[in-house]
Amino acid sequence: MKLAVPFYSSFAVPGHPLGVHCVETSLRMILSYFEPSESYSIEDLEKITDKQPGKGSWSFQWSIWFVEHGYEVKHYTVFNFDAFIQDGVDYIRRAYGDGIADFQEQTSDVEGARTLAKDYITKINIVSKRPTVNDIRLEMSRGFVVKPMVNGMVLNDKEGFEGHSVVVLEVDDSLIWFHDPGLPAFENRKMSHAKFQQAMDSFGGEMDVIRQSK
């Protein structure tokens, strides 16, 4: 059954025509699903993610906020948090290559993320593996809403790297449906398992799953 997750679009900001709020917009969708009587503005979400002006957002700050506000968060990754805390962007460059390292260095607060990571690893359930479409289906069957990180360029059949966040609605035997906050934004976007898996793998293998604590 397809999740009735509300859809919101990201938006362009000066110097970033594709926008830098895909994480905040994805979280807005998820919070609106679990808390339909509440209204979270982008400004609210920027506080939750501790977003820096013109920068993308890491998962550390918002994940801690969710746990402290009655949610369970699991994070799929093969990321070496100890190495990142020790070496910062140099670790990303060694493990994921220059393209991803340059993107993170230019569009996110790497030094701030290194500090937050120390608290993050004590509060979040880390699943030490690259996520697959089958993992998405499994976590959805457990009541989680799934927010994978993907390479947006792969989604849109372009060359290069763009870190991007989407929210999954449904998975069947061959297709996956998801809200893509963009830009460009696509509500209820449909894609083959193989193409979506390629987009996840091209990011490096990162996925968050979220549900309200029982």
Q: What does this 3D model show about the protein?
A:
By secondary structure, this protein is an alpha+beta fold. It is 43% helix and 21% strand. It contains ten helices and eight strands. The protein has helices at 22-34, 42-49, 60-68, 81-87, 89-96, 98-107, 110-123, 133-141, 152-155, 193-203; strands at residues 71-77, 125-128, 145-151, 163-165, 167-171, 175-180, 186-192, 206-212. The strands form two sheets. The chain has a five-stranded mixed β-sheet. A three-stranded antiparallel β-sheet has the order 5-6-7. The longest helix has 14 residues, at 110-123. It is globular, with a radius of gyration of 16 Å. The mean pLDDT is 92.
Give the overall shape, derived from the CA principal axes: globular
- How many individual helices? 10
Q: Strand order, main sheet: write it out.
A: 2-1-8-3-4
- What is the tally of beta strands? 8
Quick structural gist:
The protein is an alpha+beta fold. It has helices at 22-34, 42-49, 60-68, 81-87, 89-96, 98-107, 110-123, 133-141, 152-155, 193-203; strands at 71-77, 125-128, 145-151, 163-165, 167-171, 175-180, 186-192, 206-212. 43% of the residues lie in helices and 21% in strands.
Question: What are the key terms here?
Answer:
5-stranded mixed β-sheet, 3-stranded antiparallel β-sheet, 10 helices, alpha+beta, 214 residues
List the helices and strands and how they pair.
Elements: H1 22-34, H2 42-49, H3 60-68, E1 71-77, H4 81-87, H5 89-96, H6 98-107, H7 110-123, E2 125-128, H8 133-141, E3 145-151, H9 152-155, E4 163-165, E5 167-171, E6 175-180, E7 186-192, H10 193-203, E8 206-212
Parallel strand pairs: 1-2
Antiparallel strand pairs: 1-8, 3-4, 3-8, 5-6, 6-7
